[in-house]
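Fold this complex.
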Amino acid sequence: MSAESQPGNHASEPPHPPQRDRSSDLIARYQQVRDRSERLADPLSPEDCAAQSMPDASPTKWHLAHTTWFFETFLVEQVLPGYRCFDPGFRVLFNSYYNSVGEQHPRSSRGLLSRPSLDQVLEYRAYVDKRVLGCLEAPGGLSDAQLDAVELGLQHEQQHQELILTDIKHLFSCNPLHPVYQDGPPPVPARVPPLRWHGFDEGMHWIGSSGPGFTFDNETPRHRVFLEAFELASRPVTNGEFLAFIQDGGYARPELWLSDGWATLQTQSWCAPLYWEERDGAWRSLTLSGLREVCPEEPVCHVSHFEADAFARWAGARLPSEAEWELAAGQAPIEGNFVEQELLHPAAATGPAGAGTPLQLFGDVWEWTQSPYAPYPGYQPLTGALGEYNGKFMSNQLVLRGGSCATPRSHIRATYRNYFFPAQRWQFSGIRLARNAC
Amino acid sequence: MSAESQPGNHASEPPHPPQRDRSSDLIARYQQVRDRSERLADPLSPEDCAAQSMPDASPTKWHLAHTTWFFETFLVEQVLPGYRCFDPGFRVLFNSYYNSVGEQHPRSSRGLLSRPSLDQVLEYRAYVDKRVLGCLEAPGGLSDAQLDAVELGLQHEQQHQELILTDIKHLFSCNPLHPVYQDGPPPVPARVPPLRWHGFDEGMHWIGSSGPGFTFDNETPRHRVFLEAFELASRPVTNGEFLAFIQDGGYARPELWLSDGWATLQTQSWCAPLYWEERDGAWRSLTLSGLREVCPEEPVCHVSHFEADAFARWAGARLPSEAEWELAAGQAPIEGNFVEQELLHPAAATGPAGAGTPLQLFGDVWEWTQSPYAPYPGYQPLTGALGEYNGKFMSNQLVLRGGSCATPRSHIRATYRNYFFPAQRWQFSGIRLARNAC
Amino acid sequence: MSAESQPGNHASEPPHPPQRDRSSDLIARYQQVRDRSERLADPLSPEDCAAQSMPDASPTKWHLAHTTWFFETFLVEQVLPGYRCFDPGFRVLFNSYYNSVGEQHPRSSRGLLSRPSLDQVLEYRAYVDKRVLGCLEAPGGLSDAQLDAVELGLQHEQQHQELILTDIKHLFSCNPLHPVYQDGPPPVPARVPPLRWHGFDEGMHWIGSSGPGFTFDNETPRHRVFLEAFELASRPVTNGEFLAFIQDGGYARPELWLSDGWATLQTQSWCAPLYWEERDGAWRSLTLSGLREVCPEEPVCHVSHFEADAFARWAGARLPSEAEWELAAGQAPIEGNFVEQELLHPAAATGPAGAGTPLQLFGDVWEWTQSPYAPYPGYQPLTGALGEYNGKFMSNQLVLRGGSCATPRSHIRATYRNYFFPAQRWQFSGIRLARNAC
Amino acid sequence: MSAESQPGNHASEPPHPPQRDRSSDLIARYQQVRDRSERLADPLSPEDCAAQSMPDASPTKWHLAHTTWFFETFLVEQVLPGYRCFDPGFRVLFNSYYNSVGEQHPRSSRGLLSRPSLDQVLEYRAYVDKRVLGCLEAPGGLSDAQLDAVELGLQHEQQHQELILTDIKHLFSCNPLHPVYQDGPPPVPARVPPLRWHGFDEGMHWIGSSGPGFTFDNETPRHRVFLEAFELASRPVTNGEFLAFIQDGGYARPELWLSDGWATLQTQSWCAPLYWEERDGAWRSLTLSGLREVCPEEPVCHVSHFEADAFARWAGARLPSEAEWELAAGQAPIEGNFVEQELLHPAAATGPAGAGTPLQLFGDVWEWTQSPYAPYPGYQPLTGALGEYNGKFMSNQLVLRGGSCATPRSHIRATYRNYFFPAQRWQFSGIRLARNAC
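Structure:
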């Protein structure tokens, strides 16, 4: 067990940089992250920012306000005595799901909030930003725990940046006029290398994070798992490969599907990934750049866990467990095949097919694992209201790994656990195959 | 039967003024009506104009575009050869329910149309207005049938003007910030005169319209009905009277309710009219001017047919039939107690309680009748796609009469048949009592 | 107005026979009616009698118990001091919808009542029968009002006899084994005479009942209506005629349908009458005698109001109003084309096509009218709990006239108003055409 | 890793006894198991056996037929050439969920199958029994794979025996008459010993089954897991302890609940375990012996995973993982505290509180674990249609362990994985606490 005897991944490093450096760093990142959220709304009209296309999605305006509410509630109100809030009504309107904080406006009615206007929300952002920055710049500075709250708020806002994009994409898909979020020529995909299998021996492994960088509570504690020998595919499944599944009757063969998946397929009349439509035998897909032909070289995207699982069964493989995925990710450079966010669609797998090629694991599509989202052994949620951030969702959802083309690059890491319900498809979610070692 | 032997109400008048005069008149009215729709949107932000609070309601922007689509489809496209439409996608987006014209965007998804923007819709309006006015001003002019289509389009737009107000009121009621559409001091209601009963003898009567002014097809043909003797209340039921019903357990006594009404009450948890809320024993109501105390002198408003029917039973009375109502309305001046639309809430019944006082029947609240919305004997819908305007809704709805504080004054007439489903409450709908003659 | 000057149809007859004769008559009829209900259950197993196929339908066992509960509640408990009920739990279980009597077991859960057993329900019937007959035979006898309650109970039980048949038919239609209620060879239909039109002049008419026989409260008061001239078809629409509607795309043409009807058709995927199924181009229909070929000569049956209305529009006609129907029925002998109940399916229209042939109006199918079920002018429900019998359902339903092959013959009369919701199809409901006089 | 180096639990034993002995054994067990199913129906009427109280539950008659269909489909049809089935319609009616076999009667409509009658189903059972026994007794005998199918059929039937009891209990709970399945005096519970914690060290462990006895495919393959040190409670949570949770506001405190659990609680208005009702401050529970006072000494039962999880959080503990549970169960004798099925309610925890007391893990209540139902590493479903038995349900469900008072004793084993959805409560499901080692 010697290989696993090291209890932390970087145990010798200090948990945090000195406080003053940390404040400076946070000030810069705060401005950058907060600004990027607003830049995401630049191509959108006030009406675009206000609409909600389904209960799972939220209006852009709500995202902009909620992330602000987060800083206001968990930092400013805690730090500044006598703080006078921007609008007391916002406490309810922009509380997402924190029962400990109080009442919440019903999630499915966020699209009815024509007021406050987008302008007022931007004022709200400026109002809170001023106070957060004031706290960070104050001579006495913030405590470690308060700086942690700032960091959490930034990570939180980065999560919502991805949601802004997925939710706008869904909204635009409901509009027969096919609005375009980001114009430009279609990307020229590289040739896809053949899928290869990377082998991993059985053994004990450390999984999860023990720092020193930021991690969500659900990535901890770092702990040991025993894994049988397995193999992982070198790249995500492509549209071309998924089309072969469709053409082989994949959506009409119950033996390929989980029982709940088959029931969902029938109820929802699924016959292809979300946003795909067939006309005269050709498949097109709605993208943030409008309706485009489905490119066979790109990773398949907007599939549910049920579709990922059925595809894997059809392909004689399976989905990886999150521990398998994380083990492999320890060997994969995050920068490797990462796709610039300006593209906002999954990139084709590039890279020469040489033996030494690293796995391409980050930044194209979130990869469904077969692992239900559950607490790690010894998991402790954050204390107080922030304990509701992650822990209470550990039921009925599945873990996705890797980050997508819509994920901020600095938000991607090997231990990150994203999670969605198995029937959800509006995220940039795709398929990574695994199989047992022969 | 001599009193009824006259087949029309104004049979000696010509059906239409000479064509040139008619065009001039229509030009003036077209500009006035079209302008008023846009004025109704003046207090609203683009987001206000885009949201849809329930499937029954539509966004303001949709109303503005749909009424334009109506002129484009039923006039401009018919009259101008080679007309190039503003946007071909609008043909589907802003078709409400005309199957003969083609596909329709799903009604419940109108709030997802963040595009076209409000500005684009206003451009669309200007684009179509220019062509309609061009047609009206052209030397050759329009045929009688085409002028009829213009007239229908204006009447249609006036209907949507009222809907803009009722739908915005509903939207704002969903927002905990209580937005205000129209500010101002609460009206000072006059003292309500005691309710008196006006008697009508049994006999044959002519009901419905035979012109010469505009009428919808559902108001025709003018025909005879036999009515037993009856009595009609001199004014609508007031909030104060309805409060007595509530305090007498009206919402908890099934014997007062129709079976479907009782089921609806339980499912929807009704305990007061829509928009009412109780706090510390006092009732307030959401109005277009914000949250206001319920004024006991004003006519009760935003009640369903079920509530109107239960109230009438509790009061030892009943709702009038539409024939009874129309018979009485023949004796009531429309100008009498009409309320200025700038007020946008039902007025208190005024007028001295003298024996000769006319009935107050118009312009406060739409009055539920007991009459299901059904075709008059010999009813013929308009030909072509416009046949879908009224006739296909003659199922499961009930007739309301009189017009409300939100109805354009020129849109009110004695033969007008409004209709809604018995559980609907978001219109300015109230209660008029009737009873059999002793 | 001389023709209508007679205020009652049999005003000179006494309202009731002398009380002793009436008791004797009721004893005989009580035994006959109560026995027939149990005979209807003879072909059924205990499981058949316990199942409920949809909320609209009830188990046979429940019908047998509820009709008994009716006599127990509205007669025995009122007449016999200190009456000890058979089982106090039945007061709730078998109360259909009488809020004034107390709580009710939820309607949609009647099929879960495996207890009491069928045998116990038959004991319950015997227990109550003994007491009802005891009351009827007692020397002092019952008061007029109490005898009225017995009569109402018998009429009520006859209504449930028809429901037993329609509900079992629906239950068996849900079973792929196609159980047979009543075996036998298919009837040999007579040739259908061509449809002819009977004309009626405009005029005032008396409608409704003023006795002397039994009538439900909703048939009263007898009152005057003015009818325009109209024509009524000589017989119901046949399966063959309805097939022509199907083959002409009747179920795919929205312009033929009421708006609510079209929505229902799409939601329910209607493409033919209930119980019809097509295989290899041939239509078969599930009957109480099992699956049978659709006979073109028989009246079409198990159509909704929406289908009846669409068919009429397709045929260039309309449905009659209930007043038109009743006017015509005054001239039609009930015995004429009445079908023996042993057949339990609508008969083909027979009768020579001579000029003097009476209309065939009774006993084949319930005929949808265009008349919403509404109170007659001056309508007064029965007093007390029995006031809930009819009046509270006067909302959203439509009147059917004539009686079907499943209606007890003695239960059929010209003034009878049956009523169902426009989308309901599991009754023996068909189509009678009418049209305006040229 | 020496302690875990043993790959199987009984690897030296032969996988099966000699074939002839196996046949004899199976004949005896076949008769015993098949007979017991019918004995379970002895207290029930035909109507009891036919009703279905919710989609999750099935009628007793359906259970009796489906288990027979299982032998017919997976054994008799495979073994006997030219076998003539009892009724071809049963192939669809009694297929539960095997898409590979063909169509299925809709699950939620099983209660509408008044035919075939209970008697016919018993005939069906005899018909198939005769052929199964004929196969088992034939000189040539059955192949190993065929004997495996018999064994699987018996295990399958034992699963349905428990479902017969849980489903009848639910059905009777819907009947206000409170039918009794099994009469008798309430059990006299022993005093509950105080809850103690049993500690387990961290380490690698073998989990799952490698035979030699029967196991379902989902219990295989036997494989290694690494577990942190933990502690397990000595007995299930009692009603008395759960009452303390209720009285402490457990059902009103969102911070104790998973997000989905809290939403379910609100939608379903949960305020106590299923079948509990409060009257005048005292709690009673519907049991198979009728309504009984809640006994504080008995294990709490009919709680969902959500309630179990919330209780554990309230108690400062957590639910065990299934691996933890199975590790502990290796040390617990199945016979120890097993409850006779004749009692049919969870027993109070007995046993002296001495240090050497074994854990009480079997036969009272199914114990919710925190483990989602997922495939073991290397899991392979059975081949052919039987592959649908377990594998396709590995989504959204959670594992329960231990067996309940309604589980046949011979059906209980340490590696057994039962699974239900987290909101389901109608099984005999209870709570076992665990916690991390200090």
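Chain B has a mean pLDDT of 90.
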